[in-house]
Amino acid sequence: MFNIVKPNTNYDFVKASRIGVIASIIVIGIMMFVFFTKGLNYGVDFTGGIEMQVKFDDASVDSQKLRTVMQEIKSGDVQVQKFSDATGNEYLIRVKGSEADLNVVTKDIELKLETTFNKGSYDIRKIEIVGPKVGRELKMSAIYALIYAMLGIFIYIAIRFDYKFSPGAIVALIHDVLFTVGIFAITGYQFTLSTVAALLAIVGYSVNDTIVIYDRIREVMDKHKGISLPIMINKALNETLSRTILTTLVTFLCVLMIFIFGGSSLRDFSLALVVGMVSGVYSTVFIASPVILLMERLFGKKTAE
Fold first, then answer.
1. For domain 49-130, is the CATH number 2.40.110.10?
2. What is the phi/psi pair of residue 161, to 5°?
3. pLDDT at 301
4. Which of 73, 137, 173, 296, CA to CA, is 20 to 30 A from 253?
C-alpha cells in the first residue's frame, strides 16, 4: 500500500493541540464577533428580491457606470457586483427585499438596460425572482434543516461512542460549522441555499473523518493497554496520517477545481466545501482527539473507582 508518510513517523499531535485549541478559540471568537456585528451577505434566496446576471460585450462598461444607471430606477436597494474574472465583463444586479411588484421592477431594469446600452451589446443570462415572504420562509427552513441534521448526528455520535469520545466529535462538528459560517461573514460571500447544502455536506464529512480516527484510537487502546492515553492518541493519529492526507488532498483538489473553474453559480457552494474540508481535518486532529484527554481527566478516575 502506498504511504505518503513513513510508517514509523511519530509526531506529537497532542502537544501541538494545546496551541490549536487556543488558536481556534481566538479565531472563532473573532469570526462570531464579525457575524453578530456585520451579519451574513444573504442571497436573494433568503432576503427576497431580484437577481439578474448580465454580460456586456462592451469593455467600457464598468461597475460604477452600471451602478449609476441602476440608481435611476428608484426601486429599493439596487446593488451591482462584478463577479467574473479580469478578462470578463459580467455583473450581478440585485434588488433586495422590495415589497413592490418584483415583475414590474424586473421590466424596469430590462428597459433601463435597453435604453442605455445597445440591446445587442449585452446578454441577460439569468433572472431570479423571490418574494420577501418566501425568502424568510426559506431562511427558516434552512436553519431548521441544519439544526435537525446536527441533532441527528449528535444522537448517532452518542450511540456510536462512549462518554470519552462523544463530546470531542460534537465539539469538532460545531467548530467546523461555526468556522465555515465565520468565513462567509468575514469575506462577504453570498450565503445562499447552496451554501446551506454545503454545510450539510460538511457535517457529514466532518463526523466521518472523526469516526475513522476514533476507531483507530480505540483499536490502539485495546492492543496497548499499558501505555498512557496521550501516547495512544498520538500513535493512532500517526498511523492514520497517510490515509488522512491522501483522502483529504484528493477531495480538496476536486472541490478547489470547482471553486476556480465552476463559475459564479457554484462559487459559494464550493467555497463552503473547501473551508469545511480543511476545518474538518484540522478539528479532528487538534480538537476532537485532545478532548478525549479532557474527558478522561474529568470522569475517568470516577468511573474506575
1. no
2. -125, 170
3. 52
4. 173
